[in-house]
């Protein structure tokens, strides 16, 4: 009887011990369940047959599943056509064979999954499967990272980069960039065509490896100036070619990183060779026109007019400076010989001011005419002009004078008639 009593006490102690162990196990299970439920990443558990045996809150929220009871024990990944089509089932099989699997980002349309949801939407997830053995049974822990926003940002960045690259590639100018070591990191098609090299040969090279030393040093110095000052520069680049030279207007400016530090030098070179050539032609044409205009004005300002046999008239109009004085002699002397003139009438009616300089011009003209065997008649001297000539002591020599051009012409014609009679 005593032994039975002792056995009962031992069994009671064992029961108490087992109850405590069960309570501890239940506590640990509740703890692990709570941890799993509140994991900050979406997670689920599948058994060896593909059935979903657990799914946490974040995963349910991402997939818009109202409660775990709707899917736990009711959804089989191997039997979901959408999951099979998108590769989830195949990756689960790999994990069940003991392989840790990370799927590429995959879109998941909640409307096509065949599960009751609070809303229909499309998300992008990157799913990993990790095999786990519990009491001799194989399970897989599935972690679904929502990468929708990351992919959207990545695609937006790619679109932006593609947009900018399309602009660069189709720009009608040479566009290129070099890193801080002077290596080409970007060239567009215009650069390839101009250099007659593909970009695979250009990228990673420096100016010293691509151009003659003089040109390379010039390019390197301008890049260094941009990096030193942090300011854009604009300059003309004249590049010798086989059939001449090409002229470019080049703008260089620094490219900065997110912290504002220079990370590269970008250049845009616009070919202005045709414009420069057109400007040179325009300048040459303008110079020729100015030369022709000057010659025309000279002819108009010092005309020599034959009015009778052996008689020519040169009316002077405007101020007489050194240039005009040379024009008078350059026109007058050849004209006397060409017209075989014996009488030259210089009319100064249109000269507003007669000073010592003008008087000197007239005296020089008279002496030159006399040397050619002709006689000069000065007309158009007004009273004020005559007084000025007297005051400055102008020596007009044997020059005959008349107050009007008509008087000078009458004198010249009369003297011409006298010579004919002789």
TrEMBL record:
<dbReference type="InterPro" id="IPR002645">
    <property type="entry name" value="STAS_dom"/>
</dbReference>
<dbReference type="Pfam" id="PF08448">
    <property type="entry name" value="PAS_4"/>
</dbReference>
<dbReference type="InterPro" id="IPR051932">
    <property type="entry name" value="Bact_StressResp_Reg"/>
</dbReference>
<feature type="domain" description="PAS">
    <location>
        <begin position="160"/>
        <end position="206"/>
    </location>
</feature>
<keyword id="KW-0175">Coiled coil</keyword>
<feature type="coiled-coil region">
    <location>
        <begin position="1"/>
        <end position="28"/>
    </location>
</feature>
<feature type="domain" description="STAS">
    <location>
        <begin position="301"/>
        <end position="412"/>
    </location>
</feature>
<dbReference type="Pfam" id="PF01740">
    <property type="entry name" value="STAS"/>
</dbReference>
<keyword id="KW-0597">Phosphoprotein</keyword>
<dbReference type="InterPro" id="IPR036513">
    <property type="entry name" value="STAS_dom_sf"/>
</dbReference>
<dbReference type="InterPro" id="IPR013656">
    <property type="entry name" value="PAS_4"/>
</dbReference>
<dbReference type="InterPro" id="IPR000014">
    <property type="entry name" value="PAS"/>
</dbReference>
<protein>
    <submittedName>
        <fullName>PAS domain-containing protein</fullName>
    </submittedName>
</protein>
<dbReference type="InterPro" id="IPR035965">
    <property type="entry name" value="PAS-like_dom_sf"/>
</dbReference>
């Amino acid at each position: 009887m005593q032994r039975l009593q002792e056995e009962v006490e031992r069994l009671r102690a064992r029961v108490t011990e087992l109850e405590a162990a069960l309570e501890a196990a239940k506590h640990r299970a509740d703890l692990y369940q709570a941890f799993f439920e509140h994991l900050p990443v979406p997670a689920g558990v599948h058994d060896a047959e593909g059935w979903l045996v657990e799914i946490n809150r974040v995963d349910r929220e991402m997939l818009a599943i109202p409660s775990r009871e709707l899917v736990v024990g009711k959804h089989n990944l191997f039997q979901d056509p959408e999951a099979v089509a998108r590769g989830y089932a195949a990756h689960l099989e790999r994990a069940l064979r003991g392989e840790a699997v990370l799927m590429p980002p995959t879109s998941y349309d909640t409307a096509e999954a065949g599960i009751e949801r609070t809303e229909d939407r499309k998300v992008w997830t990157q799913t990993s499967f990790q095999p786990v053995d519990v009491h001799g049974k194989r399970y897989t822990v599935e972690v679904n990272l929502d990468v929708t926003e990351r992919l959207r940002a990545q695609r937006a960045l790619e679109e932006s980069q593609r947009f900018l690259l399309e602009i660069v590639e189709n720009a009608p100018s040479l566009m290129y960039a070099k890193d801080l070591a002077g290596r080409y990191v970007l060239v567009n098609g215009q650069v390839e065509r101009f250099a007659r090299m593909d970009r695979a040969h250009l990228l990673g090279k420096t100016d010293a490896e691509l151009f003659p030393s003089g040109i390379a040093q010039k390019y390197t110095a301008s890049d260094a100036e941009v990096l030193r000052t942090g300011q854009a520069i604009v300059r003309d680049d004249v590049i010798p070619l086989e059939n001449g030279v090409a002229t470019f207007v080049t703008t260089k400016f620094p490219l900065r990183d997110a912290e504002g530090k220079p990370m590269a030098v970008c250049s845009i070179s616009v070919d202005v060779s045709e414009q420069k050539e057109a400007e040179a032609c325009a300048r040459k044409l303008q110079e020729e026109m100015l030369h022709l205009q000057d010659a025309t004005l000279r002819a108009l300002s010092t005309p020599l007019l034959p009015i009778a046999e052996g008689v020519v008239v040169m009316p002077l109009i405007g101020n007489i400076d050194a240039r005009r004085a040379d024009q008078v002699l350059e026109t007058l002397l050849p004209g006397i010989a060409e017209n075989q003139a014996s009488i030259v009438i210089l009319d100064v009616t249109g000269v507003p001011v007669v000073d010592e300089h003008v008087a000197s011009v007239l005296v020089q003209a008279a002496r030159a005419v006399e040397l050619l065997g002709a006689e000069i008649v000065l007309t158009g001297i007004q009273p004020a002009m005559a007084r000025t000539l007297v005051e400055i002591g102008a020596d007009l020599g044997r020059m005959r004078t008349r107050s009007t051009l008509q008087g000078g012409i009458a004198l010249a014609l009369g003297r011409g008639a006298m010579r004919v009679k002789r």
